[in-house]
Amino acid sequence: MPHWVTASTSDSPALRYAGATASLRPVDPVPVPPACGLLPQARKVLAVIARPGQESANLGALLYAFRRAGASLALLSVTRGEASPLNSTLECLETRRPWELQVAAALLGVSSVSVADYPDGGLDRRPLAELTELVRREIRRQAPDLLLVVDPVADCLDDAVVARAVRCAARLARVPVMARAEPGTHGGQPVDLGADPAVARAVQRSAAAAHASQSEARPEVERRLALLNDLETIRWLVPAPRRA
To answer: In whole angstroms, what is the distance from residue 82 CA to residue 61 CA?
Structure first.
């Protein structure tokens, strides 16, 4: 059974044809930006991440936007993030990174933070049923009406395992799962960050900066956030049940 650290803190085709004398000749499609949607409504959002730092660099703007819209926020990190190759401090990452997570979560408005100590970088070697039960317990404890994860990518096994465990737990609990995805992701939908997108990004940057042990990664985080502007991209991993 994994060890837990639990704490509470206070209160993102149209085709064009060129004229020709004999016939119409198709040319390259003109890119049409997808319509921007609204942030889904939620009473309580439970974010599940593989490691500390993702709540800020990946989910920070969305979490803040949900909080501004009136939702309460809870967070579960499956690992302590101890496998990171970066460490700008002299402290042990196994203890440092969960503390940084608490600081970042407070900035984002997260009211409940739980950290399990499954092995960072080794979630694919743990039984899926065990990780699913971990998420199910947190769903029962928090009673969310929306789960939020980082969209899994091919080069990160831990993210893929977490997303799979969350999907399994969510289907059993009948709770929808939304993933924060990169722009251009197949099946992704852009959403705006509400009335104060600049504030959402500023808070996200502040939360990311709370992870001082990972300061070497900040320039890349800042570069990526600058490209996102006022939008985030979401993808539904488990859609909300249709109302009768």
So the answer is: 24
Hey, how many other C-beta atoms are within 10 angstroms of the C-beta on 89? 14
Nearest of 35, 36, 31, 33 to residue 231 by alpha carbon: 36
Show the low-confidence residues of the chain (pLDDT under 70): 1-36, 154-155, 243-244
Give the DSSP letter of residue 152.
P
The domain total for the chain is: 1
CATH number, domain at 184?
3.40.50.10320
Q: Where are the beta strands (DSSP E) in 122-175?
A: 146-150
Q: How far is CA 165 from CA 51, 169, 180, in A?
A: 15, 6, 16
Cα–Cα dist 97/99, whole Å: 5
pTM (predicted TM-score) = 0.85
Q: How far apart are CA 120 and CA 118, in angstroms?
A: 6
Is 50 contained in some domain?
yes
> Is residue 90 assigned to a domain?
yes
Range of the domain at 66: 4-9+34-238
Asked if residue 187 is part of any domain, the answer here is: yes
The SS3 assignment for 164 reads helix
